[in-house]
Structures are given as C-alpha cells and as structure tokens.
Amino acid sequence: MRIDGLQYANWSEKIFRQMQAGGVNAVHVTVAYHETFRETVLNFERWNRHFEQYADLIIKGTTATDIDRARETNRTAIFFGFQNPSPIEDDVGLVEIVHTLGARFMQLTYNNQSLLATGCYEDSDTGLTRMGKEVIAEMNRVGLVVDMSHSADRSTIEAAEYSNRPIAITHANPYAWHPALRNKREHVIQAVTERGGMLGFSVYPHHLKDKSDCTLESFCEMIARTAEKFGAQCLGIGSDLCQDQPDSVVEWMRMGRWTKTTDYGEGSPSNAGFPPMPNWFQDNRDFGNIEEGLRATGLNADEIAGIMGGNWYRFFRENFGPEDSV
C-alpha cells in the first residue's frame, strides 16, 4: 500500500496515470490555500469533473474503505484538505459543511497568524486562539483532521494537547536534520506522535538537507532515525509534490492576497519559484525509490510497509468519521 499525505500538483491525465503506474493507492490533495468558502466550493466542482472524466484512474475518497476500493480497481483515491482555514472564513458552522463536501484535513494556519493559531513565520507564537479551540472541538466532532504542517511550535503543541483526537503534520521533516522554519523540532514531533498523531515526511527541496541535492540515502536515514526516536507506527510520507506547477503558483501559495510584496519564504530571491526536485523523486512513479532506500536503513518490512502507506491507512480509518463512531 502506498499513500501520500500531501500533494498539490497541476492535475492532469498524465499525473493520474503516473499515480497508477507508481502504485499510489491514495493521495491527500490540497483543494484550497487562501480561497474563500465559495471559491473552495468551485474547486470541489472542478474535481467532480476530474472524477467523471478520469473514472478509470481516480475516485473520490472520504473513508479508508475507499482506499480498499481503489486498490481493488487499480485506481487512486483522492482525499481533500485545506492548507489554510480560509474556507471556513469566520464561521465555525462551516466546519461541518466542508466535511460534508469531502474535506478531511484542515491546517489551522498557513505560515501566518490566522483566526485560529500562529504560523511558523511569525515572530511571536501566542498559541491557539479562542476560535481555534472552538474549531478544533468541532473538527473533532465531525471527523476533520487538524493539520499543523505550517504552524508555529507552541500552536502545534497546544493543538495536540487540546484536540480530543490525534492530529497530523502531513508534510514536514525534523528541524534537527534541516533547520527550516517549516520543519519541526523534536519536542513538537513528540507532542504530536505520543498522542497518536502522524508525521508525513516531505520531499519538497526547501525542507530537505542539501535541498535539491539531498540524497536518497540521507532522506531515508533521517526517516529511520526518526522511527527510532518516536516509533515507526506514527510516520508516513507527505511528499508535498507540486508537479508541473508554474512559478506563479508558488507565489500564490506564499502570498495569497495578504501582501503586495514578494514573499520568498525562507531566504533570498534565489528561493523564488519552484526548486528542482531531487533526482530520485520526480513524480509519483518514484515512490519505489523511497521504499528501496528504507530497506537499506535496517527498518524491517512491517515498519517500511507502515511508513509507505499502512500508517496513513490506519489513521484515515480512525479519524475521518464522526467522534461518536470511533
């Protein structure tokens, strides 16, 4: 089983066929960055057209059983998530609505301070807001997973502690391996994983040691060492693959409508645009490279199977339904 905890590709038949060729059974797809509720609904509508047009390649995923159906029919189950809480605007009642539409993950922040929590690029981390606590409780109730991938440390720890259900960091790496602001310090990873939460390892070059020149050996060794510290059962892949996207999209991701200036993320104008992917992970056909690399680290077959997809499958099964169904 192969499950990717996060992608934001420029979706096409080519990519869907690469998923099929790579044996990718499920992908968590970003369906909103900075969109309003209405704009997000239109994005769901576009995906409905994809499901109609490419019914032989993809299906809509809402529960883990959809992954089973995808595997049986050699397709990929598509699960939706938001990288920002903007689709719920300032209305806690929209949490249940977006879950009904198909959303299964929502980040409480995207780099900046939001109505719910603090992003990882802010100078001061004040933790969860009053609304943030109300939204987490509602997310817990309906089965919308709290994602803290772009959140600051205190906010992430407070979310893990406040949530009645496990939360996720769908796409990030350990800060000790590569000190990017987006990567997570050990005490943050511990706070999430010791409560049953998940960490998905990112292949996005700005999150990697040596960036685009990161070796497969370094990446897989990092995963093995993280497994030693926190347990392999709480780890997965969240590639953050942005395949075939124009550079204008990374500008939209970073800047949305909140600034008139150019935000280069962590660094100088040299970080503008999408960086080249490492040569061992260009698209969905390359998940086998990660699997092979993990074998060389000494992880056993069950641990590798969990990291490649089994752990996400269990997490999906336990957290996508209403709280009273668990």
Give an overview in words.
The protein has 326 residues and is α/β, with parallel strands linked by helices. The protein has a single domain, classed as TIM Barrel. The chain is built from eleven helices and nine strands. The longest helix has 19 residues, at 301-319. The radius of gyration is 18 Å and the shape is globular. The protein starts with a strand and ends in a 7-residue tail after the last helix.
Descriptive tags:
three-stranded parallel β-sheet; six-stranded parallel β-sheet; single chain; 326 residues; globular; TIM Barrel; 38% helix; alpha/beta
Could you give the topology of this structure?
Elements: E1 3-7, H1 13-21, E2 26-32, H2 37-53, E3 58-60, H3 65-72, E4 76-82, H4 94-101, E5 103-107, H5 130-142, E6 145-147, H6 153-162, E7 168-169, H7 186-193, E8 198-201, H8 216-230, E9 235-237, H9 247-255, H10 287-295, H11 301-319
Parallel strand pairs: 1-2, 2-4, 3-4, 4-5, 5-6, 7-8, 8-9
Helix pairs in contact: 6-7, 8-10, 10-11
Radius of gyration: 18 Å
Q: What is the N-to-C succession of helices and strands?
A: EHEHEHEHEHEHEHEHEHHH
- The whole-number mean of residue pLDDT values reads 96
Q: CATH topology, what is it called?
A: TIM Barrel
Helix and strand composition category? alpha/beta
How far is the N terminus from the C terminus?
23 Å
Uncertain regions spanning at least 5 consecutive residues: none
Overall shape: it is: globular
Number of strands: 9
Q: CATH class, please?
A: Alpha Beta
**Could you tell me the strand content as a percent range?**
5-15%
> Biggest sheet, in brief?
6 strands, parallel
Helix content: 25-40%
- The number of distinct helices, counting runs of at least 4 residues, comes to 11
Number of domains: 1
**What do we call the CATH homologous superfamily?**
Metal-dependent hydrolases
CATH architecture: Alpha-Beta Barrel
